[in-house]
Design goal:
- The protein has 2 domains: about 260 residues, Aminohydrolase, N-terminal nucleophile (Ntn) domain (Glutamine Phosphoribosylpyrophosphate, subunit 1, domain 1, 4-Layer Sandwich), CATH 3.60.20.10; about 200 residues, Rossmann fold, CATH 3.40.50.2020.
- It is about 25% helix and about 25% strand.
- The protein has 18 helices and 24 strands.
- The radius of gyration is 23 Å and the shape is globular.
- About 55% of the residues are buried.
Length: about 500
């Protein structure tokens, strides 16, 4: 039967992005795949819902049923766009893949929403990608010179063209051939008529796990929390450089790349992953508490209260309070119903700043020496507003302790980060940062302290156990596009880097 895709694309324009979320790193997507189970699309919706924190701009699902592929893609949240029976019914079949996405500036639009689909000579093929290809612009230029026609500005579309033009015979070999030509970080789930493929880059920068729903139904997901929501069992992490293919005959694994030292993203432990997930086999919540404990060992203070900046600072603040013997209190209360701004961010609303999302708990803060614990400082704009709010609530002293080292360098591996010049730590010393955001003192966990928190004795400087480029500036792969000539950079606006 000839493959084709019935696309049901919802296309309302998203509301303006919440400007008060702009001072955080955003992991730009999460992926999910399910094979050989009834109501595959329903499982995909639930899985994507649990991965919503990884991408809140758009969501999409492609399913397969009796030789046909079906698609629904929407701007906005999963719950807003996959919440009716007609939508679920439009995605029939026993296998499906899905994607949630956070776009960078210039990369928004329905045409960039994943999964991407193409009719290849070998049949229908859909792919969803977490990560960023650091040579995508270079490959894209080469492919266009050869006659390829691109339909999006997403670097993920490069994969489809590489698979389509590979001279290998079967799909798995074509996919591996394509992977050998790309650089950077990636976790893929791909769907064809008779198989589901999960693959991870040779360094394992981006996460991907394998789960089982029942004896012959398997799941791929960015995090284990997506397995929990559908009652699937966690089997293991997909290993760095591994390609796992699932068919009716079972699970096949190949490792087509030379063995290298894995470098998973350490910021998954700090911020990206949900605290109830396992990352690299370790509880994210436990690691974040350990970070707080290490921070307390390194940075002691005689304070009255430890207060987290919600919600990402909560586990580290608990660990700090326990280790330091200082009371933990919710001195800042988060409004969970803000999401995107419900009104246009005029100058008046911008002046309100962080109060739309957070409010000081004056009864706990008034007259107290307070340690604020947060996961990171990016531009410093939110930190400045939080500190000012706590002072206005009557705090006697405000000290800010950060559960990661200073963020000095941008990420090129699938994280929406400001340019180096916009990162506060890249242009100021710690003392200057403290003066800028208005705290009595500012402390960051050391890089070795962070490594101890994730279970390593210390960072091995010549060959780090994790990708920590945002703290060290040591990138584990070539940055081909970043080093391209200005003419090549003008070739295409590849701004949709997940």
């Amino acid at each position: 039967m000839t493959d084709h895709i019935n696309s049901s694309n919802s296309s309302p324009s998203p509301l303006s992005t919440n400007p008060f979320e702009a001072d955080k790193f955003h992991d730009e997507c999460g992926v999910f795949g399910v094979f050989n189970t009834a109501e595959a699309s329903t499982h995909a919706v639930l899985g994507l819902h649990s991965l919503q924190h990884r991408g809140q701009e758009a969501a999409g699902i492609v399913s397969h049923h009796e030789g046909q592929f079906f698609s629904h893609k929407s701007l906005g949240h999963v719950a807003d766009n996959f919440n009716t029976q007609p939508v679920i019914s439009s995605l029939p079949g026993n296998s499906a893949i899905g994607h949630v996405r956070y776009s960078t500036s210039g990369g928004a639009g329905l045409r960039n929403v994943q999964p991407l689909f193409a009719d290849l000579a070998s049949g229908g093929f859909a792919v969803a990608h977490n990560g960023n290809l650091t040579n995508a612009l270079t490959l894209r230029k080469h492919l266009v010179d050869k006659g390829a026609i691109f339909q999006s500005t997403s670097d993920s579309e490069v994969i489809i063209h590489l698979v389509a033009t590979s001279t290998y015979m079967n799909l798995q070999d074509k996919f591996i051939d394509a992977m050998r030509r790309i650089e950077g970080a990636f976790a893929f789930v791909a769907l064809a008529e008779d198989c589901l493929i999960g693959a991870r880059d040779p360094l394992g920068v981006r996460p991907l796990v394998l789960g089982r729903l029942h004896d012959d139904a398997y799941i791929f997901a960015s995090e284990t929390c997506a397995l929990d929501i559908i009652g699937a069992d966690f089997i293991r992490d997909v290993e760095p450089g591994e390609v796992v293919t699932i068919t009716q005959d079972g699970v096949q694994s190949v490792k087509p790349f030379p063995v290298s030292q894995p470098r998973p993203c350490i910021f998954e432990h700090v911020y990206f992953s949900r605290p109830d997930s396992l990352t690299n086999g370790t509880s994210v919540y436990k690691v974040r508490k350990n970070i707080g404990k290490e921070l307390a060992k390194e940075c002691k203070l005689n304070a009255d209260l430890v207060v987290p900046v919600p919600d990402s600072g909560v586990p580290a603040a608990i660990g700090y309070a326990q280790e330091a013997g200082i009371p933990f209190e919710l001195g800042i209360i988060r409004n969970h119903y803000v999401g995107r701004t419900f009104i246009e961010p005029s100058d008046t609303i911008r002046h309100l700043g962080v109060k739309l999302k957070h409010n000081a708990n004056r009864g706990e803060l008034d007259g107290k020496i307070v340690v604020l614990v947060d996961d990171s400082i990016v531009r410093g704009t939110t930190s400045l507003k939080i500190v000012d709010m706590v002072r206005q609530a009557g705090a006697k002293e405000v000290h800010m302790y950060i559960a990661s080292p200073p963020t000095t360098d941008p990420c090129f591996y699938g994280v929406d980060t400001p340019s180096k010049g916009e990162l506060l730590a890249s242009k100021m010393s710690v003392d200057e940062m403290a003066d800028h955001i208005g705290v009595d003192s500012l402390k960051f966990i050391s890089i070795d302290g962070l490594y101890r928190a994730v279970g390593e004795p210390k960072r091995i400087n010549k060959s780090p156990q994790y990708c920590d480029a945002c703290f060290s500036g040591e990138y584990p792969t070539p940055l081909t596009d970043n080093n391209a000539s200005d003419d090549d950079k003008q070739f295409s606006l590849l701004t949709d880097n997940r």
